[in-house]
Structure formats: C-alpha cells, structure tokens
Give the backbone structure.
Amino acid sequence: MRRQRRRLWVLVALVGLLLGGVLWWLAQKPPSIVVPPRQYPPNNAYDAYKQIAQRMHDQWKQDDRLRRIESQLFSKHSIHLTVPEADKQYYLQRQRPFLEAYRQYLDQPCKAVFEYDILWLMPELVGFRTIARIEALLIGDALAAGREAEAIQRFHDLMRFSEQIRTDGTLTHYLVGSRMIETGLQPIRQRLTQFQSPKVFSALVELAQKYDQSRAPLKDAIQNEYYCGLGTYRDIALRRIEMHDIESLMSEINFSNNFERWLYESGFGLRLTWGRSLAELQEYYKRVFTELEKPLWERKVPAPNFKQRTNEILGQVWWMLHVDLSANAELREVATIRLLGCYAAVKRYQQQRGTYPLSLEALRPELGEMIIDPFTGKPFVYRTHPKRGFQLYSVGENLTDDGGRLSANRQQGDLLPITEGALPEGQRPSPTRLSSPPVWLR
C-alpha cells in the first residue's frame, strides 16, 4: 500500500512537472517586435539601377570573351597582366551603354530597395561594383591622355551614383558605396601631383564640398541593420522563416557541438532566450546610436560582445559584427575626400598668390569644416618648406602623427591625398619597407 502511494505521489509530481514545463513553455511567447515598413519615393532610381545591373549580368553570362577580359582587367593579379588593346576596347564598347544608362537617373530620387529579411539577396551590388571598376579604368585613361576635366566629371558622376545606391540602405549598401568611391578615387589620387589646371583644382574643391554636404550618413545604414536584426527575431517567431532556411548562411558558424546546432536549427534555443537575447541586442544598439550622435572624432563605436549565445550565432549571419569596423571606414572616406579638396585649395592658392598659405585656417572662410581631420577634430596636419613644398595629411586610424609617411598597413602611417602609386618606386611602402619617407607635395 505504502509503495503504491509512493508511486502515486511520484506520478503526480511528474505530471505536475510536465504541466509546469508546458505552461512555462507556452509562456515563452516572443516579445512584441515592431519593424517599420519600407517606403520608397515615386520613380525610385534604384529600381532602374537594378535593371541595369541585371542586363549587365545577362550580357556577362552570354559573352565568354567579355568574362575573360573582365577577369584579366580586374583580378587581384591584373597589375601583372597586359590586356591587349583590342580586347580592352571590345570590353569598353560592350559596357558603355550601361554607363550611359545609369547617368540618366542621377538626378532622380533614390532609396535602396530591400526588406528587413535576413534572406534578402542583393545581386545588383555586384553590377554596381563593376560599374565603379569600369569608370575607374576610364578615369585613368582620361588622365593619361591629359583630359583631367573629363576624369573629374566621371568621378563626380560615380560618386553621385554611389551615394544614391546607399541612401537609406543596409550596412552592405554603405560599404559597397564606400568601396566604389575608393575605386574611382584611386587613379585620381595616383596622378594628383600632375594636375596644374586652376579649373581642375576648382572642380576638385567643389566636388569635396558637395560630398561633405550630401554624403549618406552611416547612422541610417546601422539603423537599418538594427531593423534587420529585429526582423530576424520577428520572422522566426512568426514562423515566416525557419532556422534551417538559413542553413547555407549558418554553415560557417562555429557551433559548440551538434546538440547546439540542433537546438538552434529546431528553434528551441531561440525560444528559450527570447527576452534576454532581444534585450541585449537592443542595449547594444542603444550604445551604438549614442556614439553616432557625437562628432566623428569623438565616436567610440563599441564592437559587439554578446553574452547571449543566440545573438552570437545570429550576429554572424548579418553585418552586425562589422558595425565598429564600418565606423572606421566612414572616417577614412571622409578624411580622404576632404584631403583631396584641401590639396586642390592649397594648390589654387599658390597659383593665385605665388606662395602657399601659412596655415589651413587661411582657407577656412572658403572650405569651412573641410579642413578638419575627422579622426581628431583638429585641422589636418599642414606645414610648408621653402624648398620642399608642403605637407598635408591626416593622422589616420592610429591617431599618431607619423610625419606624413605612407604605410603598407592601413592601421599604421598617415593618410595623404595621394596614394603610394604617386611616389617614386624607390620610396613606396613594400613588404620589406613598411613606410615611405616623409612625403612633401609641390
């Protein structure tokens, strides 16, 4: 009898635990997540740009010769390849219609098209990068032929295009746009010291001023990344997507063991940590947005350091892990274009007055904040020498004045308006010589 009672109590306890577990499980409802809908302007230029990129891709698939030449022109090892002129002209002739097509939409409103969906694909960005490479090739050709005004106009159009495609976009859009601008600037910075025309210097000053006034803010891209994160939680909670839907994205994630992989792919792992994980994600972005409200040089955007395993795993699927790195990319981009404008203003001043300005403050009435190094909040380093010319540079990411030296490592050395390609070969940074001598400009 006693044994039967014990069994009965054990059974009651097990049933109670089971019911308690079920009730607790049912109580783990996903928190309320509100993600604003995407809205687009009428006649959105981005739709036209997507169509252009698709036509480029269709042509690329159908033309074997085009693919071969493109690989030779733009591969990492293309510097060592000599592309026959006939091939190069064939490639440009096939691609020119697309360059003419995108220019038709530069004055239209534009907003990046995507949804807050972790599975949303953006193949058009590959076409946009290709357009930037082609424009850079043509910019270099124009400069080599002495057509500086044409080169500057091409870069102006490319910069406008880059700003359009990353307007209110994701961090991916932002970084692709930044890379497009960098690509177009490369041949200009490499030949900058050869420029002599006052009109070209004025055009460069105007270009840098326009950029400073209208550049797409990084904050918008990070805001959209945050919404992408919220959208991921929402869609999994509503069973719009399952963890196995992103299996291909998650294949590179380092799960602790197969049980953990099963736990998250089944959805149990996420459901068990709804509240804590979402609160941690929101707290992280709150700190990020607080930093983004500060001036560029005061920002210290934190790197993700999540304690909740769910955020560690999902964070590897979208661009959240690159938020802090993108802040450095923004600083470098702003500094480079400002330096370009300051260089042109100094050269124009010298042409008009026969001497270099004593300091950049002499140019502040015209340039305003453009003389400010975004890494420090102070004017760019500038000094003159009666025989050597002048130095102009940003202290760069290491926040250290390295005397105007270029380095093979972006995290070291200073940032100048020119690239190492503008230096004599014997002065360029290399694996055996990590930095150049102090660079003086004339």
